[in-house]
Amino acid sequence: MKAQLFCDGASRGNPGDAGIGCLIILNDKKIEISEYIGKTTNNVAEYTALIRGLQEALKQNVQEIEIFSDSELLVRQLNGIYKVRNNNLIPLYRKAKELLAKFKKYQIFHVYREENSIADELAKQASWKQEK
Hints:
36% of the residues lie in helices and 35% in strands. It is an alpha/beta fold. It has one domain (2-128): Nucleotidyltransferase, domain 5 (2-Layer Sandwich). The protein has a five-stranded mixed sheet with strand order 3-2-1-4-5. It comes from Thermodesulfovibrio aggregans.
């Protein structure tokens, strides 16, 4: 099964209250994820959104996935163009690569925020939710 994953992270204050947003499109089914992840940076939120979206896609038995993110840093790091130097991102990068290896095929693309508007809105909404 093939899917498209649109993912985004948002942090109010950077670091600040953060949320993740994902839109997974599988054939005729859409799955939306909007979760508060506590106080962290925008880059950590971006990686957390990707990881959460990949976990959900694997749960749905997706084998091939196209990933769209408006985080140029995340896309370039995962495509091997940039090295990951931030100690907070290294374990998240490794987890993302571990999950990506479980797919038969994957591609990750940088898109402008306007093309990632649903995931962006889900992440922003989640950043306003408080942990209970």
